[in-house]
From TrEMBL:
PROSITE patterns assigned: PMI_I_1, PMI_I_2
Pathway given in the UniProt record: Nucleotide-sugar biosynthesis; GDP-alpha-D-mannose biosynthesis; alpha-D-mannose 1-phosphate from D-fructose 6-phosphate: step 1/2
Protein name: mannose-6-phosphate isomerase
Family per record: Belongs to the mannose-6-phosphate isomerase type 1 family.
Keyword Isomerase: yes
Residue intervals of the Phosphomannose isomerase type I catalytic domain: 50-190
Cofactors that this protein relies on: Zn(2+)
Domain of life: Eukaryota
Length: 460
């Protein structure tokens, strides 16, 4: 048996990382190796290391600026002269922006492939999803509205990727869940039949673009007729609105803005009316300003979550959240964006369900830890709020996890760690399958962490 120092050094070399750096390596790793059927060397007696990661920042136009963006703060990037928007922090293996090992700069995706995914991701996960993480973990800082959009189901994703790979860059579906970190606002799903009738009665600019025939059908629809007829009428009306000419839309938005500004002097505008005026300031003459009347206006408090399934319309409006999804970047857009719009695809793919979205508040799984479990098998999210001086042990799971320290400081302990495991705001860790992790909060305030992992139901 080699000494612990020699074993650690050899493991570091085997991992292809010069020096120990930010890598958390076991102190008692044996050097005995075996070879898998795929030819990957595995350390038979060694615990697989917990890795410090660097996430990838995305600078989309709707993101917050450096001084006000949670993404910028967590990434530790930028300087006083940096005017770029900091929109998203990606943590995962999606090839568009994979995370990298903090110690070496090697992408996590490449490292997993080189080391053998079965041992690190768990046999069931590797058998189902191959060498990639099945989930993509993000932080979003939304300073202005994102596009009106939907994500394709698996079959449509494959078709779109085959047809237009430059636009739809992978062939996977993208169910997603957002957990609010601050007050968070969104549009999500179509409003009820009754609310839609109220829109057609009180918003002449929308009624005009929908068309008289479709408006009459919707006004005569019953709330509880099984929904088949209503969905057909809704699809026709919404498609008419979204495909109206640019000139017609521009005139309608101008009329709406003028009318609401006048009426605001004699009455209090509704929250939806105030919203559309705000959207018009962000995206002048955009059809999305009018389309907002069709969607539920949702506000999440910190700790509340929203799940969005395939082919459901939505648009994030403001606030900051952690988001987890299947590993995909497929987005079909149709409004409130300078990016490519695929209006016909969006209008044809939507479910046209008229339900207010369920607000998820999570389930306590132990002291200080709340779990959000969506219907999708690829992911779940844990939220840990740990008071200073307290600790919590996250039991081993048969799949991989990514931990993010949102606020506070403390330590992360695991059998496979060599350094002190100091953890502070913005630190990101990859935790292999079957690894127990203990978290201790030691700073002056509480420690807030989030864990993304494979949905527990997948293993049951």
């Amino acid at each position: 048996m080699a000494s612990s120092t020699t074993a650690s050094s050899q493991l570091a070399l085997a991992l292809g990382i010069p020096g120990l750096g930010g890598l958390l390596i076991p102190t008692d790793a044996a050097t005995t190796t075996t070879t898998t059927a795929e030819g990957n060397d595995l350390h038979a007696d060694a615990s697989h290391p917990v890795l410090r990661l660097a996430g990838a920042v995305q600078h989309y136009e709707w993101g917050g600026r450096r001084g006000s963006s949670l993404v910028a703060r967590l990434a530790g990037e930028g300087d006083d002269g940096d005017e770029r928007p900091y929109a998203e922090l990606w943590m995962g293996t999606h090839p568009a922006a994979p995370s990298s090992l903090a110690a070496s700069g090697e992408s996590l995706r490449e490292w997993l492939g080189r080391r053998g995914p079965a041992a690190l991701l768990g046999r069931d996960v590797a058998a189902r999803w191959g060498g990639d993480l099945p989930f993509l973990f993000k932080v979003l800082s939304v300073a202005r509205a994102l596009s009106i959009q939907a994500h394709p189901d698996a079959a449509l994703a494959r078709a779109l990727h085959a047809l237009r790979p430059a636009t739809y860059r992978d062939d996977n579906h993208k169910p997603e869940m957002a957990v609010a970190v601050t007050d968070f606002r969104a549009l999500c799903g179509f409003v009820s039949v009754q609310e839609l009738k109220d829109v057609l009665r009180t918003v002449p600019e929308v009624r005009e673009l929908v068309g008289k025939e479709e408006a009459v059908k919707l006004m005569g629809a019953k709330e509880h007729d099984g929904g088949i007829g209503v969905r057909s009428y809704l699809q026709s009306a919404f498609t008419n609105l979204m495909t109206a000419s640019k000139e017609t839309v521009s005139e309608a938005v101008s009329k709406l803005k003028s009318r609401l500004n006048i009426e605001s002097k004699v009455r209090t505008l509704t929250k939806k009316e105030q919203l559309v005026l705000s959207l018009e300031m962000q995206y002048p003459e955009d059809v999305g300003v009018l389309a907002a009347f069709f969607f539920n206006y949702v506000k999440l408090n910190p700790g509340e979550a929203l799940y969005i399934g395939a082919n459901e319309p939505h648009a994030y409006l403001s606030g900051e959240c952690v988001e987890c999804m299947a590993t995909s970047d497929n987005v079909v857009r149709a409004g409130l964006t300078p990016k490519y719009r695929d209006v016909q695809t969006l209008c044809s793919m939507l479910t046209y369900k008229q339900n207010y979205p369920e607000i998820l508040r999570g389930v306590p799984v132990q002291a200080y830890v709340t779990r959000y479990i969506p219907p999708s098998e690829e992911f779940e999210v844990d939220r840990c709020l740990l008071p200073s001086g307290e600790s919590v042990t996250m039991s081993p799971v048969p799949g991989p996890s990514i931990f993010l320290v949102m606020t506070g400081e403390g330590k992360i302990e695991a059998d496979s760690m060599l350094d002190e495991g100091k953890a502070k705001e913005g630190d990101v860790f990859f935790v292999p399958a079957h690894t127990e992790v203990r978290i201790l909060a030691s700073g002056p305030g509480s420690m807030q962490l989030y864990r993304a992992g494979v949905n527990s139901r997948f293993f049951s």
